[in-house]
User: Fold this.
Amino acid sequence: MNETIEQLLSRNSAPKLTSPGPDPATLDYMFRAALRAPDHAWLQPWRFLTLEGEARERLGEVFLESRLQDDPGIDDAARERALAAPLRAPLLVVVICRYTEHPKVPRQEQIISAGCAAHALLLAAEAQGYAGIWRTGSYTEDPLVAHELGLESNESIVGFLYFGSREGRAKPLPERKVEDFVQAWSP
Ligand SMILES: Cc1cc2nc3c(=O)[nH]c(=O)nc-3n(C[C@H](O)[C@H](O)[C@H](O)COP(=O)(O)O)c2cc1C
Assistant:
């Protein structure tokens, strides 16, 4: 098995992340990998925001605002969870799909491309000794969060990617049998 296949087969999301986060050179390779995602008509339907340090605290405030908008009566623990959510990793990357109207490339394809870019970010982080996890949740869909992050009307959040160093041991990976998912189609 070559190194690339080995890496594809062993990618393992890390819910617990700590410092250090990816250094600038590592991050540059991560984004270069993301920019090689398959992309119908080369529309490049993506852009990325990086959040480190205090920017994560500000995002926590935005998350709290979003939660309160849905339910003004949330308890203190829920408030704390919203505020602390972005602090679960030293680096967050918001993956944004930037949709361009095109006669042959529907929105869904552009979102898939941005999703492939997200996968590439995760793989490239792990390949360089870091770890990450893709998270979404209600914040991804909330116009308030989109507005605070500066999204335009043709843009949507594909995910909040959390990156850092893996804390604790990697979880065992599930056994999946190829034959359960793959059939040769015969007409
Ligand atoms: C689009 C998308 C959204 C996700 N959102 C969340 C999330 O909000 N919270 C979470 O714990 N995991 C979320 N996950 C799942 C994790 O990223 C991860 O895939 C899962 O924990 C399984 O681990 P594995 O990737 O190592 O198999 C999401 C995955 C995808 C693809």
Remarks:
- The longest helix spans residues 107-127.
- The two ends are 34 Å apart (CA to CA).
- Residues 12-13, 133-137, 159 surround flavin mononucleotide (CB under 6 Å).
- The helical segments are 3-10, 24-34, 54-70, 76-84, 107-127, 143-148.
